[in-house]
Design goal:
The protein has 8 helices and 12 strands. It is of the alpha/beta class and 268 residues long. Strands 3-2-1-4-9 form a 5-stranded mixed sheet. The protein is globular.
Length: 268
């Protein structure tokens, strides 16, 4: 399988590129592209795209990379601050299925809950943008939304810093990415995935962890003891110790999963 890994920089921490290459080239070989917003400083190692600033519109950046590099069997995208255990992930992946974090149904966009506390809901890239998108939906899309989320005007919500998209879905994904171009990725990506799938069994859930509590983030190294965990977010690579521990985690996982059937990737 020829799979492209798209690593998106929320901020121009391009000094981390050698570390990211060391961590993931064992799996993807030369098939890694580093992406950032066009307003970031020029770096010849980085593909700069018009949209995607701060990761808010990551889905649009992914669509633009796919347009430029269409000859792949599938595409992983990840934020630069996500530590991904690809040996574990690839031991459980079906390359024909979408892989994403488990999503939940968000509120009816035309009946918003005033007490909603999620910071990305009542901002321009949240509720207002979704209302605009719904005004452009076809009857087929509206029916698919209702089937997927149990509500005619509901959307999905989930962390979306890491996902896998098989090539058979890229056309529909890209078209919807432009439709959702002003929408926050944690709403846009799970909603797009539901729109482009014909059946629920066309996706599997990623098995990882997000650490949102700032106090818990001070002591995250114990998570690297679990070689079956597929990803950890956030994992900042600015510290050499962190990078070394993540590399050790991936190497130990590769050993632990060496006897299992792996999705074989083209590295040349």
């Amino acid at each position: 399988w020829k799979i492209l890994l798209i690593v998106f920089f929320n901020h121009p921490f391009f000094a981390h590129i050698p570390t990211l290459q060391r961590l993931y080239s064992k799996t993807f070989g030369k098939h890694i592209v580093f992406v950032a917003n066009e307003n970031t400083p020029f770096d010849e190692r980085v593909l700069r795209v018009p949209q995607g600033y701060g990761g808010v519109h990551l889905h649009l950046a992914v669509a633009q990379v796919i347009q430029q590099r269409p000859d792949y069997d599938g595409y992983f995208h990840m934020g630069d601050d996500v530590a991904v255990n690809f040996p574990a992930l690839l031991s459980r992946i079906n390359p024909e299925k979408i892989r994403a974090v488990r999503w939940e149904s968000k509120n009816d966009v035309f009946k918003p809950i005033p007490s909603e506390t999620w910071g990305h809901w009542f901002v321009p890239w949240g509720l207002p943008s979704i209302k605009e998108v719904f005004s452009c939906f076809s009857a087929k899309s509206m029916a698919r939304i209702e089937e997927a989320f149990g509500c005619k005007h509901c959307v999905g919500k989930c962390p979306s810093d890491l996902a896998y998209l098989p090539s058979r879905f890229v056309g529909d994904f890209s078209r919807n990415a432009y439709l959702f171009q002003n929408t926050f990725l944690e709403i846009a990506i799970p909603t797009i995935f539901q729109l482009i799938m014909n059946k629920p069994e066309q996706h599997d859930h990623l098995k990882g962890t997000y650490v949102w509590d700032n106090r818990a983030r001070k002591n995250m190294y114990h998570l690297l003891d679990n070689v079956n965990l597929e990803f950890i977010h956030p994992m900042k690579l600015s510290k050499n110790e962190t990078a070394q521990r993540v590399e050790s985690w991936i190497n130990r996982s590769a050993t632990a999963h060496s006897g299992k059937q792996q999705m074989l990737l083209c590295k040349a």
